[in-house]
Amino acid sequence: MSEDLSDKPTQKDDGVGPRYARIQRILEARLRDGTYPIGSLMPTEVELSAEFDTSRFTVREALRNLTDSGFVERRQGLGTRVISTQPQVHYSQTFDSLQELFQVAVETYYVVLGSEVIALDKELAGVVGGKVGEVWTRVDGVRWTRPGGRPMAYIQSYVPQAFAHLVPQFQDYKGPFFNLLESNSVVPIDECEQEISAAPMPEAAQRQLGLTPGAIALQLLRRYRTSEGVLITSCNWHPAEQLSYKMRIKRNRGQS
Amino acid sequence: MSEDLSDKPTQKDDGVGPRYARIQRILEARLRDGTYPIGSLMPTEVELSAEFDTSRFTVREALRNLTDSGFVERRQGLGTRVISTQPQVHYSQTFDSLQELFQVAVETYYVVLGSEVIALDKELAGVVGGKVGEVWTRVDGVRWTRPGGRPMAYIQSYVPQAFAHLVPQFQDYKGPFFNLLESNSVVPIDECEQEISAAPMPEAAQRQLGLTPGAIALQLLRRYRTSEGVLITSCNWHPAEQLSYKMRIKRNRGQS
DNA sequence: CAGTGGTCTAGACCACTTC
DNA sequence: AAGTGGTCTAGACCACTGT
After folding, report:
1. For residue A220, what are the CA distances in angstroms to A105, A234, B90, B97?
2. Nucleotides on strand C with an atom closer than 7 A to protein CB?
3. What is the pLDDT of residue B255?
């Protein structure tokens, strides 16, 4: 039942496709039925080569795919460890760039209202992702659809001291500020945390956006992180009627 | 400057790491500087093997990584086509399951307040993702931390007619309803759309959640889709103070 | 130290695309 | 028919992990 593998490759093995694919399917079946339990080590490449009467190359190709599918992880000198017994279905939302994360900031205009150098207290440190006592600069501003147009959001940006010298460029910078900071940073942004909440519109924002008291805000807090720490944190208050945050999460791969 | 490649492998090529990695870096540099323009075909495996005085295997490993990084696409019989000149950095948020998408619904209790069979008008059709005139069932309910505990959210669920027979099971079902429906569906959920917005708490929700007039809600609208259409749409109103939606978006691969 | 996966060679045949 | 990438062999040495 498992011996036409010694036949010529890619011809009529039993199922279809190349040999590594058939071996992969067999191994996946064993993972599912518990032959290789989670946490255990799978047979070595040499053992599998012998079992399937094939070269290490072919076995490696099958194992590479199992790794990509999240079934196993492999470590030099250690072996192939089973980390999942299911095809590791997972869902993801992807953006080609952080700009896409939020569709604003393109063709919009930013007006600085003021800025202030502050020392982080405990609460603020938690909000911006810094440490208590660090010196940051807070920049207040409003983003408009166009000069003299409709105000879109009230924004407070928190910039660590190392990048405070860029704050004067905020006023004229086209595009999101994390871009400005990232292009002046030696390390790239590798993570963005976002917290979305509903809140009453702060009074200052209310005034600047021309809203009536009691207005509701969709609040977006974002921390852009590099390996060195937070690059910039911004908090946007959008009028609730004007903005909703839409996302689509897709299943990736995997059957069942 | 490019001729210590004929030396022994993985020893001291020039930079660091294995040979395929060095070749990969060289090729990436050429992609960036326009030596291989977008849309063109890169040199063939054999040509690259000759240039770098290495085996096809090693070149293939480099090209495989370029493919994974989104630089090129490869077609048998055709060649290696340049599709991007940038490391195709992209960011993604992933969930291992849709449950993780939202951390609620585990160890919580749901109480049905009532349900109603409705025909979709134009507005409702847009909201739930159905067609005008279709018959759906709307189920109103409240989710509690525990029986008699704290109310967490007011929920309206919209279920298409095909699954209306499952509505009586909502009351006792542990876990999110899309799970219940999916396990009674022949096709799996492959997509979830989510819209997050801020809004005044609806009056009915206000009453059920024991809130004062003027309360603010974080509203989450989710449509779970299969290949056959929407499986279930739910709209949750959470008290603004009780919930914020947090997400973390990570850079995937690629340097610079 | 022995054994693992990681890298690599120098061949080979096949499936596919283009001419 | 010629040339491409896809698959595969049977070797080899290396880097890393455990003992």
Report:
1. 14, 8, 21, 24
2. 2-12, 14-18
3. 36
